[in-house]
Amino acid sequence: GVQVRQFGLVGGGRHSMRDSxxxxxxxxxxDTLLPFTLIGTALAFCAALxxxxxxxxxxxxxxxxxxxxxxxxxxxxxxxxxLADDVRALATGxxxxxxxETGGRAxxxxxxxxxxxxxxxxPEYDQIRFLDELGGEVFxxxxxxxxxxxxxxxxxxxxxxxxxAAAMTAxxxxxxxxxxxxxxxxxxxxxxxx
Length: 194
Known about the structure:
Elements: H1 2-10, H2 15-91, H3 94-102, H4 105-121, E1 127-131, E2 137-142, E3 146-147, H5 160-166, E4 182-183, E5 186-187
Antiparallel strand pairs: 1-2, 2-3, 4-5
Helix pairs in contact: 3-4
């Protein structure tokens, strides 16, 4: 009797094993389909959430980068305006303008003194040069108002900044690319980007 009860608990009779396995075959796909469906739904939800968040991050980064570029453009424009004002102030000084009209040495000296004064007031400028139409330095004032002696002036005709500027019309301003400063045909040491 004990064995029959145990056998009955397991499924009862010899057909019960086959019935049980058939029942298992029929029931297992329904039972396992639900977890896979839930996992698939969760993965699809996570993928959609990720794509939405990634799109928002990309859009936000684009807005931030656009704002940053606009800010840099405004700052650069302000700096260029300041530089252009400085160049105009030097170019329109009465001594330099009179020198261009008369070629007189006294007028040139007044232009040089104005450039030296300007250099002392604006230490951010390394050099102030006045070049003639052939690229020769008429005068050069180094940082701090140091006037370079006439015998140490240089020919800059082969420099790209002179060649570009020489082809421009009056009133235009040329901003060159960064370069290393050349003095006496050699790169200045220590390196000085200009």
